[in-house]
Design brief:
Elements (H helix, E strand, L loop, with lengths): L3 H22 L6 H8 L3 H7 L3 H26 L3 H10 L6 H17 L3 H27 L8 H20 L7 H15 L4 H5 L1
Helix pairs in contact: 1-2, 1-4, 1-6, 2-3, 4-5, 4-6, 5-7, 5-9, 6-7, 7-8, 8-9
Length: 204
Amino acid sequence: MPRPSVEAERREQILRAACEVISEKGYKALRVTDVARHAKLSTGSVHYYFETKRDLVHAAFEWNFSRSLERRKSILDRHPNARDRLHAFVDSYLPRDDETAAAWRVWAETWVEALHDPDLRKLNERIYGEWRGIIAEIIRLGQAEGLITPGDPVLLANVLVSMIDGLAIQALVGSKHMTIGRMRSVCDHLLETMSAEPVQAAIG
């Protein structure tokens, strides 16, 4: 049996490969042999960690979300105030580079499959709850700093998340009316409407 550290590395290797295949071919066309080839492993090695294709795909969807948050941790630490963090956080979700676009395509496959899979609906609910919670907390902190307009942070987070999702899907399918540049402009417009002057400046 592989050592724990090797198992963890191998498992991540497989999940990364699964997300690559899902992004390229979609869930329906995914085969375990494709994942094994991308991971440079045998099919038996993949089945050692994931008994069925369903187990593999569910784990890959969750890994895709976790990886997405990990890539953005530095963003939250890099900016001095919540308003700048919110702008940078949203900007990082524009599907303008290969890695982000691939992650969005996996998300789109998650949503489609969740229409027919109760377990994926639960996964989507939990994951989206975490993402909305992160956005709402940034907004809440920005309001406390006087940099984001007053209002229900959860409601504002839902507006922002829903807008990003809809725009990203249009951009991913190559809409002439919603390019990456136009998506950025729309996001910037909403964020500007959510911005407020610092309390000190408003008082002065």
